[in-house]
Design a protein that fits this description.
It is built from seven helices and seven strands; from the N terminus they run ββββαβααααβαβα. With 215 residues, the chain is of the alpha/beta class. α3 packs across α4. It starts with a strand and ends with a helix. The relative contact order is 0.18.
Amino acid sequence: MKAEFIYCSGSKNLILFFAGWAMDASPFKELRPRNADLMIVYDYSDMTFDKSIIEHYDYIKLIGWSMGVYAASFVFRNNDERITHSIAINGTKYPIDNERGIAENIFNGTLEGLNEKSLGKFQLRMCGSKAAFENYIKIQPQRDIEDIRNELREIQNHYNIYGVPRFTWDMAIIGSGDKIFLPENQTKAYGNATIVINNLEPHYSHQLLNVVING
């Protein structure tokens, strides 16, 4: 995994945000939390996270979005008493699951057919509208196809080996317009977590992420 500070003020509070597949820090550069530092984690071609870089924080607000929900669940599978609140957004800790995550045939089809054209179609579905997609393109990650194909393959391999992490999320925010992680699958994935349905929100919403980070 890669980790990058978006905002670092020397606070003892950290917002630790695990982004989705194929991401880097580019789409999140303008996010500015109140009274906390902000770190973005991405690239799950290696599922190792160096916790020493966050050892000086006393309180951590953990946010996972999309495939970052699975990655964060794995990293904190043994829990961390410093986590004061955990919020999952449009994702589950079941990355490949016909009922609680992305259907296996969809995941495999994305992996096998990945190219520049199919990535563009994925991003359009992720954003939910042409206008949102055009805004996203201006801040999109700078990673090549082979890099993100390898990341997706390694997520698959990792899940096949290690299975579902034991981590339990406090809250799940589900966009009813999500076309990547289907809303009904997300709902099935969360037991006692507080579930918040955001009407018509797509899989990726910069506005929603900003609200959650500053909430």
